[in-house]
Specification:
FHA_dom, 22 strands, alpha+beta, E3_ubiquitin-ligase_CHFR, transferase, Tumour Suppressor Smad4, 4 domains, Herpes Virus-1, flat, 521 residues, 13 helices, five-stranded mixed β-sheet, cell cycle, single chain
């Protein structure tokens, strides 16, 4: 089964004795890893011990060191976007001592959807008790935050690293690495950020100058030389600009070179400082954000023509849906970013908004939106396709409970679709299923939700991933009496599914039942 190599994959014999294990939090992204060497590098490049093919990770993301003499593990952060221990960002070139049970995030849960998380729980076989001192003082944390804020203006949204050979798209003015957009351009001629059509692609020497000066101050932020060489080869934008015509043909345009050096006036100094350049980028980005966030409203003074040229249903009806002119505001589809009317949610037959995240989608009538995500991003709960396999993340990395559930499914010859249908028939359709996000079900929840989910509740694909985890969790609670004696006759842990001890203490995981909500706070 994908995501559980320690259970389903053959054991690789190694002469060295494993000193620890990294248990994956997301089996669909990366497998669990046994730790043998005293120095283990993790990143995107093939030269690493643990290779993770994810464009948002650095080539060499971090390094784990094992001191066998003192039984101490340390982690050195080498990434641009950060490695996290729990919710604490370590910061590039900072080192921290690891503890048994630490959660190590390469893509943190607060920065990506739960389906994109890349993280591990560290299990150390033996570790001496050492006094842990604060690793980063307040001044260091402020410095890290300043660097984060600055990097946001000069980072590429595709590779999530500092921009290299910057190109700007017209008319939206979004910036990307030349190599990154070249890969994107081979598939489609829209902006990766806003999905608007691209009329031309221009080189942006101003941003290149900003990045160059920034790297002079922070040389540790540079990519590996082999990564720059690879990006040089991928960059297909050789001229000063590319233009797209109506037939999708690309033409190269050479424009006069741009200089950012202001002329000397008297004895004054040039004004091409890094602060001014970054300010210009921030102003352009803010204008674009303001432009996209505006919701256009109908007014009585408007004529009978289209209310907004960006909304196709303002011009003609599509599949029976058309704007009600002079009365309905517009907003952006959360999937394809196209303008769409804000339909009346009292009309129950319409499935335009996810009831959980409250984002709107135009996929019900817009085929382009469907093609973008390969499937309908927002449908009624009962129409969603469930995963073929059960992920260990549903049991919060509790391997004992996970294996017990797999054994039950095998004994009863059950599939995930069988579980889904059982919950639809016996709980969800009768109003007996609630989706919860609270201290009872989550460690440090970012929001509080107590919501009844019915089979016809509109749910987007991203939110269904969260709901599916609780569907399996509630199903496991409902069939507790059908489990074998050593499983069903255990007492319940006070901390339930939120228990941290169950991850690194197999004896505790086996002794107490953790498939329950937390009752002690």
């Amino acid at each position: 089964m994908q995501g559980t190599p320690d259970l389903d994959e053959p054991v690789i014999v190694n002469d060295k004795q494993s000193w620890g294990k990294l248990i994956s939090m997301n089996g669909s992204k990366v497998n669990s890893q046994e730790l043998f060497d005293e120095e283990i590098t993790i990143g995107r490049l093939d030269t690493n011990k643990i290779i993770i093919s994810e464009s948002r990770l650095s080539g060499l993301h971090c390094k784990i060191k094992w001191d066998s003499t003192n039984n101490i593990a340390q982690l050195l952060d080498l990434s641009t976007n950060g490695t996290f221990i729990g919710d604490q960002k370590i910061g590039k070139n900072n080192e921290i001592i690891l503890k048994n049970g630490d959660e190590i995030f390469l893509l943190h849960k607060s920065k990506v959807p739960i389906t994109d998380i890349i993280g591990f729980t560290l299990v150390i076989q033996q570790q001496k008790q050492i006094k842990m001192e604060p690793q980063l003082d307040e001044q260091q944390q402020k410095k890290i935050q300043m660097i984060e804020d600055f990097q946001y203006d000069i980072h590429c949204p595709i590779c999530d690293d500092l921009i290299y050979q910057c190109v700007s798209l017209m008319p939206c003015l979004h910036n990307f690495c030349g190599a990154c957009f070249s890969d994107w351009m081979a598939k489609q001629k829209t902006c990766p950020s806003c999905r608007n059509d691209v009329q031309s692609v221009n080189k942006n020497p101003m941003v290149n100058n900003v990045v160059e000066k920034y790297l002079q101050m922070h040389p540790e932020k540079k990519r590996p030389p082999e990564e720059y060489k690879e990006m040089d080869q991928k960059n297909k934008i050789k001229g000063d600009a590319l233009t797209f015509n109506s037939t999708d043909q690309i033409s190269t345009v050479t424009i006069p070179s741009i200089t950012n050096d202001a002329p000397n006036r008297g004895r004054g100094r040039p004004t091409n400082t890094i602060t001014q350049q970054v300010s210009i980028i921030q102003q352009l980005n803010q204008k674009e954000i303001n432009k996209q966030s505006n919701i256009s409203d109908y007014s009585a003074e408007e004529d009978d023509g289209p209310v907004t040229k960006d909304c196709v249903t303002c011009i003609r009806p599509i599949n029976g849906y058309q704007c009600q002119r002079r009365s309905v505001p517009h907003l952006n589809c959360n999937n394809c970013s196209s303008k769409m009317p804000k339909f009346d949610l009292n009309e129950k037959r319409l499935v335009f908004r996810c009831d959980l995240c409250e984002n709107f989608f135009c996929s019900l009538y817009n085929k382009n939106c469907l093609q973008l995500s390969k499937k309908n991003p927002n449908v009624r709960l009962e129409r969603h396709q469930v995963p073929k396999n059960v992920d260990v993340q549903i049991f919060r990395q509790n391997q004992f409970e996970f294996q017990a559930f797999l054994d039950f499914m095998k004994l009863k010859n059950l599939t995930t679709q069988d579980i889904f249908q059982y919950m639809l028939d016996n709980h969800i359709s009768k109003g007996g299923f609630k989706y919860l996000e609270s201290k009872r079900t989550h460690n440090d929840p970012k929001r509080t939700i107590d919501m009844i989910i019915l089979k016809d509740t509109p749910i987007c694909q991203q939110c269904f991933t969260l709901i599916w985890q609780q569907i399996v969790f509630r199903y496991r609670i409902s069939i507790r009496d059908q489990m074998i004696d050593k499983i069903k006759n255990r007492g319940q842990c006070w901390f339930g599914i939120n228990c941290k001890t169950m991850v690194h203490n197999p004896g505790h995981a086996e002794k107490l039942d953790h498939i329950c909500e937390q009752t002690k706070f």
